[in-house]
């Protein structure tokens, strides 16, 4: 098997041949000369205890409840702001442009 490459300006190594402006390499395909060592086995994973699992589940439940409470507060604030905006819009709809400037600016 030979691969052709453009000739490079360097010294030629053994097994290289220059022919018609191309550099040819002789490639020998054979098995690796070093032995591949087997991967060391890892220690078995410890089996979690029932108490540890219960603690983790309780902690997850507390986090979930805290997140839900924060979301509820956030959504209530958002709804309150939206109702304020709707009320202000209703008031502004009845006012003239001059009254709006005097009132809000």
Specify the structural class. Answer: alpha+beta
> Which of globular, elongated, flat, extended, rod-shaped describes the shape?
elongated
Q: Which percent band covers the strand fraction?
A: 5-15%
Number of helices: 2
Q: Portion of residues in helices?
A: 40-55%
Rounded Rg: 39 Å
For the secondary structure, the number of strands is 3
Average pLDDT, rounded to a whole number, is 80
Order of helices and strands: EEEHH
Enumerate the strands of the largest sheet in spatial order, edge to edge or round the barrel: 1-3-2
| Unreliable sequence segments | none
Give the terminus-to-terminus CA distance: 85 Å
Biggest sheet architecture:
3 strands, antiparallel
Descriptive notes:
The protein is an alpha+beta fold. It is built from 2 helices and 3 strands. The chain has helices at residues 50-94, 97-104, and strands spanning 2-6, 16-19, 22-26. A 3-stranded antiparallel β-sheet has the order 1-3-2, with no helix packed on it. It is elongated, with a radius of gyration of 39 Å. It starts with a strand and ends with a helix.
Summary tags:
about 100 residues; elongated; alpha+beta; 3 strands
SSE topology:
Elements: E1 2-6, E2 16-19, E3 22-26, H1 50-94, H2 97-104
Report a brief summary of the structure.
This protein has 105 residues and is an alpha+beta fold. 50% of the residues lie in helices and 13% in strands.
């Amino acid at each position: 098997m030979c691969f052709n490459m453009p000739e490079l300006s360097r010294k030629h190594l053994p097994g290289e041949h220059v022919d018609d402006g191309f550099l040819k390499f002789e490639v020998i395909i054979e098995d690796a000369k070093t032995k591949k060592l087997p991967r060391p086995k890892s220690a078995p994973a410890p089996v979690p205890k029932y108490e540890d699992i219960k603690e983790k589940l309780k902690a997850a439940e507390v986090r979930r409840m805290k997140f839900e409470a924060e979301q509820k507060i956030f959504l209530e604030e958002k709804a309150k702001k939206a109702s304020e905006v709707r009320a202000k819009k209703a008031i502004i709809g009845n006012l003239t442009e001059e009254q709006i400037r005097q009132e809000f600016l």
